[in-house]
Design brief:
Elements lengths: L2 H15 L4 H5 L3 H9 L17 H12 L7 H21 L4 H11 L13 H9 L11 E2 H16 L4 E5 L6 E3 L3 E5 L3 E2 L1 H23 L15 H14 L5 H18 L4 H9 L4 H12 L15 H18 L3 H7 L9 H10 L15 H14 L4 H17 L19
Parallel strand pairs: 2-4
Antiparallel strand pairs: 1-5, 3-4
Helix pairs in contact: 1-4, 1-5, 4-5, 5-6, 7-11, 8-9, 9-10, 10-14, 11-12, 11-13, 12-13, 14-17, 15-16
Length: 428
Amino acid sequence: MAHAQLRRLSDAVIAAQRPIRILKAINWDPRVHEQFFRDGARELPRPELPPLGFDPREKVRELRALARQMRGRNPVERLLREKCEEFALVVRLLEARGTRRFYELSRRLYGEPRQRFPDQPVDNLAIARMWAARPRARGEAPSVPAEEAARAVERICKPYLGARVKVSVRARLTANAASGATRVTLKKGVLFTPRQVRALAHHEGLWHVLTSLNGFAQPVLTVLGVGLPRHTESQEGGGVVAEFLSGNITDERYIELGERTICVDMAARGADYLEVFRYLSARFPAARAAQLAERVFRGGVVAGGAPFTKDAAYQRGYCRTFNFLRAALEQRDVDIVRAFLAGKMSVDDAELVRDLIEEGTCAGPVHLPAWFDDIDRLHATVTHSITMNRFSLPHIARYYARRRERKRSEAGEGDVDGADPGAWAGEP
């Protein structure tokens, strides 16, 4: 199929999906939490979800009719067909709000907490529990109002995105921040730490908005602006990787991401909103616990058994995206990393997009994230990671535990190791 016709179909997919807004359709009104706390946090919340703004059956028919126009077996038409099918699945998800079926469709779109990694025999829930068990550091106190944080986020993003990104503040957000194709929005009334502000700039602006802008700048496959099929895991994980690579992540962030996955699993196994809220209240301030619990139950069933599973995709996406970068740089394949930055996609699609760039169907990224500024530093990060993989942390911990025990048992008998304190002179 000619590029002009593929571009027309890609633009048609973007137009068809425009009224489908998942978070807008499932987020709760702030008054739900206000009432919840007025009732003493003892009764299940009673969220009222807004109208969808479109007829689900008509929208599914429109998407399927569009998919039938893509009859070729080439990779681009296959991707466009799969994207139409994915959007139809999203429509059915939203149509099923407040029912058990919502959970089944959510699992198909975002996966679930106990899902194993496709490239490693690792349990996602085990990673979540490891993250949640990390020690809490004594970090910065939140002191930056949302309005000041918005100005700082815009300042950080401007050298990379120019005037293309807009940052605003509004009250109706479940998360403390969210992003669209060109806009980052922060939650009114929230205080941020300076490090959180920088992390938001790299996650929301210099990742989510950046990949959207690169996708919409494509000459043919403009659907990369809204994402290829199965893109959510890698894109949400990629945002967290951006926090890490820019030096702005904290253990508190890992802890929260782990707890979010654990709570999705609790709800999937039958825990209701109150049980999840009480679990989180032992770990976070009450208002934050309610906000995190909403993320689990929005669109689903507050009585339990049918959560929204998107939060389980963040850490799985983080692990897979970071490992994708490690493998690419270990193989000296910077081009596949550039292809991954050319729009919203899964790490599994990066190789295909690189091939499409080589043949002229796709273009390389217009904008590059801040962590890509210094390739030498990026390679050094990978070198550090693969070096430490050679060592077993439990073995190392046992080694130092034995040394401590030996020192205690030999206390008062002199220098156990016979080390000369002047024997080591550090050199660069």
